[in-house]
Amino acid sequence: MNQDNGGVIGKINTPTTTLASGVWSLDSQFDSQSSSIWPLAFPQTTIANSCRFDGASSDDLERTPSSSGNNTTNTVSVWLKRSKVDEEDFIIYGEDGSTNRCKITFKDNNQLQVTTVVSSSNNLVYETNRLFRDTSAWYHFVFAFDSTLSTAGDRCRIYVNGVEETSFATETDMGQNTSNTLSTSGKTVYIGSQNSGNFFNGCMAEYIFVDGQQLLPTSFGAFNPVTNIWEPIAYAGTYGTNGFRLDFADSSALGNDVSGNDNDFTVQNLTSVNQSTDTCSNNFATWNFLTNGSYQTLSEGGLKGTGNTSSNNGNTWSTIHFPSAGKWYWETKVIAHSSSANYPQVGIIRDNTIDQADMNTGSGGYVSSSNDCYYPAGSTTVYSKDGNDTVSATSVNDILMCAMDSTAGAMKFWIGVNGTWFASGDPANGNNAQWAETGDYQPVAFQSNFNNSVSETNFGSPTFSISSGNADANGHGNFEYAPPTGFFALCTKNIAEFGG
Predict the structure, then answer these.
(1) Is pLDDT above 80 for 130?
(2) Strongest mean pLDDT among 6-15, 101-110, 357-366
(3) Which residues, 6+ apart, have CB-to-CB distance to 361 below 8 Å?
(4) Cα–Cα distance between 308 and 296 in angstroms, integer?
(5) Residue 11 confidence (pLDDT) above 50
(6) Would you give the end-to-end CA distance of the chain in angstroms?
(7) Helix, strand, coil shares of the chain as percentages rounded to 5?
(8) CA 20 to 30 Å from 152, out of 39, 108, 253, 327?
């Protein structure tokens, strides 16, 4: 090897990107590992799609088996991301008549609960001490049942991100040879609800049910040897009579079983826009339910905001913070408003703080000089820290474009509507930013006491139909308008590569 190139032979001498060709420099090796594109020695799998469930729309998936499988021994594996907390959300529910049932759910106190009921009496109750309140994270859950085992504590085992859950607030072991009713002929199994109630809010990906086997999480995932993060791997086993695998790759048939069994689920209120590219392999920003308070209602996976008429002004900010460097793009669609002063508002916020009283000032928009917010108002004015710009008023179905650049150590922010940047701005060339400032920022949305003003934000996985379809230069995201050159969707794949 020629030492002039400063290179080292990689762990596996297989160039997979343009970062290197045959010989990897140290910095290219580091960048590749950080971006999860280094050739790893384990079967890495990319999950491309998820299904976005919305409780307000009564979304779920339902299937009624035509024959019974194994109700004593089976395994449920699912990747999921919650968009709401402090409510009961069902992962799966099955029943065998009115007295026998199985439910796996997040309770309204955010503990995870697995319960089976036999003859109207609790048979198994595992309720975790751990709370699941992170709306920015993807979790992998495995629920592995085998009630034929002699050791009571082995009959139901719960794994979270590859690690067995052992700390329970309530721990009632499953009775020997009892049923969990998830594979019963003529009895409906519900994904995302409890018999059309207590609907799940958030995204689910790679949903697998294995009928007849109690499996370990290593059948579905592995720890990345570079990052030590639990990641999905392809399941290579059999599925059994009522087993299924839902990959949500067909937007026209989100209940399609791709296991080979054709145990398809019927969709309830799910349409093609419920297909999402927000997955455990590439996590996109959403609005953070934990910062939302009572001022607006979040739905559609935490991307739709509806102002509450009985509340004061309020805001929510994103689950993913801007990294210290990089260029980022997102869009917000105006869905509804009631008057010229009552518009949804979007923009950026510094340090996760805003003075609530400051939001009561201005005609549909205000910027606090101490907190440095910037967003369009519902009139013909854009309010900014440094002054006002006159623009066209936003209307229902308008799409607001936001671009943020922090690569030079100072933040620049542009905003536009329907393909035109305000003040003839040009984010691609760095010209005419509406605002230049230093500080720590992230996206923010306001849906205050604006008579049910409504907006839906697209960080790259939209909740509304896109007529054109534009990805960023990395191939991530689906936007109505092309992201400016060099600007990217706010997701973990892009942050790993461009986030500084």
Answers:
(1) yes
(2) 101-110
(3) none
(4) 5
(5) no
(6) 31
(7) 10, 35, 55
(8) 108
- Between CA 29 and CA 38 the distance in angstroms is 7
How many helices (H) and strands (E) the chain has is answered by 2, 34
State phi, psi for 360 to the nearest 5 degrees. Answer: -85, 0
- Tell how strand 163-164 and strand 24-25 pair up: unpaired
Tell me, what DSSP letter sits at residue 426?
B
Amino acid at 32: S
Helix (H) or strand (E) holding 28: helix 26-34
CB 162 within 8 A of CB 106: no
Q: Which amino acid is at 363?
A: S
Distance CA 268, CA 61 (A): 6
Beta-carbon contacts of 417 under 8 Å, excluding residues fewer than 6 positions away, are: 376, 391, 392, 394, 398, 399, 400, 401
Q: In this structure, is the dihedral angle defined by the CA atoms of residues 143, 148, 154 and 155, taken in order, positive or negative?
A: positive
DSSP assignment string, 134-199: -TT--EEEEEEEETT-SSGGGSEEEEETTEE---EEEEEPPPTT----SS-TT--EEESSSSS-S-
**DSSP labels, 30-42:** HHHHHTT-S--SS
Q: What is the DSSP string of 373-422?
A: -BEE-SSSEEEETTEEEE-PPP-TT-EEEEEEE-TTSSEEEEEEETTEEG
Tokens of 76: 């449920």
Tell me what the mean pLDDT of segment 320-329 comes to: 88
pLDDT at residue 89 is higher than 90: yes
Average pLDDT estimate for 325-333: 91
Position 255 pLDDT exceeds 80? yes
Could you tell me the pTM of the whole model?
Answer: 0.85
